[in-house]
Amino acid sequence: MLEALTTEKRNTSTTELDTFSVEEIIKKMNQEDEKVAKIVKEEIENIAKLVEAVITSLKKGGRLFYIGAGTSGRLGVLDAAECIPTFNTSPEMVQGVIAGGMKAMTVAVEGAEDSLELCEADLRERGLNKNDFILGIAASGRTPYVIGGLKYANKIGATTGALSCNKASAISQYADFPIEVDVGPEILTGSTRLKSGTAQKFILNMVSTTAMIRLGKVYQNLMVDVQPTNEKLVERSKRIIMDATGCTYEDASFYFNDSNKQPKLAIVRLLTGINKEKAQKLLTENAGFVRKAVEASKKN
């Protein structure tokens, strides 16, 4: 069974890998990584369909869950965690669920990924409902933990997606929106944290970033909902305000602080000249979209 999976096959160009010099190993890794973007490109149509479904779920008040084991699970947890400071989402909106729990982020939890029941229990604990979107991630495409989670999601009527690195993968059979990216054998046989992991990260970036853009978390190409949790992000917030409005650093600093440290609110105030309360009302009425709020102010 395993020998039929691309992710388990030997890369014929690296059968003497242990004899390569340091530079030769690095060059070969780079050559293999160059293939990833081209292969992901072939799946753009399917990725777009999945993202549209994610957006629909989030607009209904649903949540996005990534489920996976090992590297795949860790990548899901990473992408979910990054949404909080980047887009000021609640921790509940995008969640990474990994076989074995958070302990598995650093230490392998024996047997967790082989359970068909464990993911259902994890999702029940999080109150999974029909408005949610579940994206199962497994390089092999056959991880029991992920299959069990997708089966449960389908049973309760949630929308499902699958991301694997083998064609005709098992998890695709349980997904409304399957994505299969065959990046070829790894330079180190079976080490799917390499090209397969890179492909998965590419696609998770596309899923979360595109969804957040379409939910009003971005104005122009600026992350206007950034959560300024440290000095770097405070300065970035001020720069975002300057870039969006053309104001001075001094004005950006004033409006940033006077707008409850919300770049989005500061931008609407500067672009429209209205007070904080009216700017907040406009943003609320326009689902948090800066562009729509500014356009609406011109009609009033």
Automatic annotation (TrEMBL):
InterPro entries: Etherase_MurQ, Glucokinase_regulatory_CS, MURQ/GCKR, SIS_dom, SIS_dom_sf
Biological process terms in GO annotation: amino sugar catabolic process; N-acetylmuramic acid catabolic process; peptidoglycan turnover
EC number from the UniProt entry: 4.2.1.126
Catalytic activity: N-acetyl-D-muramate 6-phosphate + H2O = N-acetyl-D-glucosamine 6-phosphate + (R)-lactate
Single GO term (MF): carbon-oxygen lyase activity
Pathway recorded for this protein: Cell wall biogenesis; Amino-sugar metabolism; N-acetylmuramate degradation; Amino-sugar metabolism; 1,6-anhydro-N-acetylmuramate degradation
Keyword entries, A-Z: Carbohydrate metabolism, Lyase
Coiled-coil features, chain-numbered ranges: none
Enzyme class at the top of the EC tree: lyase
Boundaries of every SIS domain copy: 54-217
SUPFAM superfamilies: SIS domain (SSF53697)
Active-site residues, as the UniProt record annotates them: E82, E113
Family matches, as PANTHER family: GLUCOKINASE REGULATORY PROTEIN (PTHR10088)
HAMAP family: MurQ
Misc: A lyase-type mechanism (elimination/hydration) is suggested for the cleavage of the lactyl ether bond of MurNAc 6-phosphate, with the formation of an alpha,beta-unsaturated aldehyde intermediate with (E)-stereochemistry, followed by the syn addition of water to give product.
Family indicated by similarity: Belongs to the GCKR-like family. MurNAc-6-P etherase subfamily.
Oligomeric form and interacting partners: Homodimer.
Stated role: Specifically catalyzes the cleavage of the D-lactyl ether substituent of MurNAc 6-phosphate, producing GlcNAc 6-phosphate and D-lactate.
Name of this chain's protein: N-acetylmuramic acid 6-phosphate etherase
Protein's organism: Carnobacterium iners
Gene: murQ
